[in-house]
Specification:
The chain is an all-beta fold. The chain has a domain of about 60 residues: Jelly Rolls (Sandwich), CATH 2.60.120.
Length: about 90
Amino acid sequence: MSHSLRLELAAGELLVVQLSHPCQIYARSGAHWLTIDGLDICLQGGDTVQLPAGKLLLEGRGQLEMRPGTNFPQCSWLSIASHFQTA
């Protein structure tokens, strides 16, 4: 069974997520900026990216959907470290 997490970010929000396993991120809408292991990635609505395990910083506006790269037990593939309002 595949699990996913849907997120909605507003302008000025920064979310820090610790990925314990690789995951796929799909930008359902909006524009997003991601940083993981020093790599910066820009996503627009409809874009998908496969990410390695590590600390992920998410910023932007719109909806994202996150899925584990392979089947892992629910809630074991990520933890939300912090949420910041920057504006």
